[in-house]
Input
Amino acid sequence: MIAGGKLLKKAVALLLLNFNRFKSINDIIGNGIGNELLRHVVHRLPEIASPLPHG
Output
C-alpha cells in the first residue's frame, strides 16, 4: 500500500494504536466484544482526528 501510494503520488499515512489490556478484554469478555470495540474505535477516529493541512 505504501509503495502503491508512492507510485500514484498519493499521500499515505500509517496509524498504530496500542490498547492497554486489550488481550484481557478478549480473554474475559470474548473476541466478539473485542472486535466490536475495535469497530467502534475505527468509526470514531474520523470524528476526533484533525484534518491534514492542504497545500
Q: What stands out?
A: Residues 31-48 form the longest helix (18 residues). The mean pLDDT is 80. The chain is about 55% helix and 0% strand. Residues 20-48 form one domain.
